[in-house]
Structure formats: C-alpha cells, structure tokens
Amino acid sequence: MWIPNLPITVITGVAATAGALCLFKDMYGGPPFDRKVQAEGKTVVITGANTGIGKEAVWEFAKRGAKVFMACRDMTSCEEARREIVLETGNKFVYCRPCDLASLASVREFVNRFKSEEPKLDILVNNAAVMETPKGVTKDGFETQLGVNHMGHFLLTNLLLDTLKASAPSRVVVVTCDAHRRGDIRKDDLNMSQQYEPNAAYCQTKLANLLFARELGRRLLESDVSVIAVDPGFSDTNLTRHMPMSKSMTRFIIYPMFWPVMKVPRAAAQVILHAALDDHLAKCTGDYYVDMKLATPSEKAQDYELAMWLWKVSEKWTRLHAPAQATAVQTS
C-alpha cells in the first residue's frame, strides 16, 4: 500500500528541500543595507550598469532618490534596463551614457559629456568587469581584462577627480573580489603578450583594483574624497560567460551545485550601497570591505611600492596627462 504514496512522498521531499535551499540562499546573501538611508540630491556614476550587480545598484540608488548615470558600452541593453528601473522606482533621473572601458577615447568622451551636463559627482562606482576572456586586446592595445577592469577605470577615475574633489564629501567605490589573493602583477609582462592565461590575467586585474584603490586613497588623504574597495562575494551574474564551463553541457551540472551559495545580484549590490552611503565610511582611504565588513587584503595588495609602480605605468599607458586627442598607447 506504500507504493501509491511514494510519488507524494518524493514530491513533498523535493519541495521541502527546495524550500530549505531557498531559505539558505536568502540567509547566505546577507542582510540588505539600511533601507532608511536615502540618497536624495546625490549624483552617481556606475560603470557596467546595464546587467548584474551594476543594474541592481542603479535600482537601489534610484529607489533612494539619487540621480544616476549608467556608464555602459551596450546602449540598447542600457536603455532597456533604464526604462525598467525608472518604471519600478518612479525616479526619472536615471540616464544612459556611452562609455566603453575598452576604449580610452570613449572614456574621455564620457567624461567630457558628463562634465558639460553635471556640476557635481558624489559617488563614482567602478563596477564593470570582464572575466577570463579569450586572448585579445582593447582598441588601445591592452590585454582585454587589464584594459577593461583596470586601465579604463584608472583613466575614468582620474579624469573625474576634479569634480569629485569639488563635490566633497564624495566617494569612489572600487569593486574587486577575493581572486585578488591569487593575483600577481607581472612587471615583466603586464600586458601578458608573452604568455596569456585567462584566469591569471583576471586575478591580476583584481589585484590591480585593490592596489589602485589603496594608492588612490593615499593620494586623497588631504581631500574629503573617500575610497572604498568592496567584494560582493560569489554572485549569480553573467560575468562567467566567457568561462569554458558556461559554454558546455557541464553548466547544467555545475550551476545547480553552486546555486545555493550564489548571491542574487540585488543581494550582492548591497556592498556597493554600504560603501557609498554609510556615514561610518566617510574617511576611508582605500579600505577593503567584504560583505559590508572591514577585511584585510592580501600582502601583495598592501605593497606600497607595487602600488606606486602600477600607478606610474597606468599613467603612462593611459596617457593620463596627455592632450585628449592623444589616444595611441605604448604598452611596452
């Protein structure tokens, strides 16, 4: 007589397991940033704002009353995301602006347009990233991940520094991740033109993000511009789209295994809100936060001389102090 009841038992068990996994996933994602903290009157720029964590951060800032500029490469996707956010939040002050971090010319054009439209900038979020891309270079000759994840943001931030200082108190939020601990800055082959390995290139850029944040914080000690590096944790976004497992049948095996411990994008975006709006972080100088808690980065990320070296190379390669029309880059 137990056979007819077996399907019901199985269904009940599966439902209970699924419910438990969903509860665990919600708990693992962590608490949301204080919903009472608003952002009225603040102007925000977010890179990579059309998908994933960036899009959810835009939604959160818009919901809290900020004016948000979505700096994106894909304008079609950006406009779709913007319309959705405006309708859901009721905040019409959300704008799409072209900014391709793989092109120094595009970064300069974004900055020039932004400065012509806006007198101030309260929060800059360097969020955009690519991960384990096939071997290739940007329009300026940078290894793709180095160009997008580090060089583009280095130039963008520095070109906006005068506006950030004039708008102080203001903040720069740099999104990195735990992969920085496996990273090495290859001084002899920073552009990985001699030997390219996708994961090593990605980890190098995440270490570069932290070195940049720490050196930027040091340089802004006398200003009222805070710099915070954040790790949103293991998140369910399309960042892994270039990885082999995402392009094969193994994805249907691996993804369900990791799904319970992957944060949904809105949960992951809370670390950005915390870094951008929490009053207690107003004097940060390149501090590193994981899940909204102060953390210690790797020893390499704390190497002052390495940070100085990377800054000087980044200045040279991006031609930071050159006339705007000078876009050719020397990467050797």
Could you name the key traits of this structure?
alpha/beta, Rossmann fold
In short:
The protein has 332 residues and is α/β, with parallel strands linked by helices. The protein is built from ten helices and eight strands.
Globally, the shape reads globular
- The strand line-up of the biggest sheet is 3-2-1-4-5-6-7-8
Number of domains: 1
CATH architect. name: 3-Layer(aba) Sandwich
| Parts with pLDDT < 50 across at least 5 consecutive residues | 20-25
SSE series: HEHEHEHEHEHEHHHEEH
Number of strands: 8
Total helical elements: 10
Radius of gyration: 21 Å
CATH topology: Rossmann fold
The CATH C-level class name: Alpha Beta
The main sheet comes to:
8 strands, mixed
Helix content: 40-55%
Q: Strand fraction band?
A: 5-15%
By helix and strand content, what is the structural category?
alpha/beta
Mean pLDDT: 88
Name the CATH superfamily assignment: NAD(P)-binding Rossmann-like Domain
Ends: how far apart? Answer: 77 Å
